[in-house]
Design brief:
alpha+beta; 5 strands; Chalcone isomerase; 5-stranded antiparallel beta sheet
Length: 212
Amino acid sequence: MLDVLALLPGAATAADLAHFAAQQGAAAGAHSAFLANVAATHVTLPAGFAAQCTRELAKNSAEAGQVSVSYADDAAIAAAASGEPLPDGAAIDIEVWSARARADKKPLVGSDGKRVPERLRSVAAMARSAGRSREIPQMLRNEDWNCAIFGADRTARVDVNHAECLACHKPKTAMSYVFPHGEFAAAAARRLGPPAPARPVSASASSVDAAP
């Protein structure tokens, strides 16, 4: 900050610069507390979420030696398969697992071409509910989505800054704020089939609709 002030004519006097330079800075590695209205979350992780939701997508993370497994509830699946924005009531849970390795240290791959999960590391959860994000600043708000990160023991992690999660998803407005939305929608559509075509309107109904 001092360097910037020194470059701006009239922004600070020599005495001002000396004053700020004499102030004690934060300790190395210090962090400010998370904003309470961002740290709070309405997302929960039901004990049997994997049985209550549908497994839609598995992805490898070669760099981290992990595999993620995504689950979605019925509301999210129906909307994604129809190409509609994910509605209130939609929930997505993503398990992050360490990947199993073979004896030669190479990754063990299953019949689906994905790495085989070995140990659960965390669960990332997103849920959408009307009015549940009013307290989140507009610059971070993902419409009515809330998020949370849970540990392998299913308890919420309080050391995770939700502001980072929200800021990362913020640009994905056209994808309902969900990064793998396209892959997710394709998987749901393959499983459910294409949406039923709209029923044509009969001539008599059209004439009735057009009547004053």
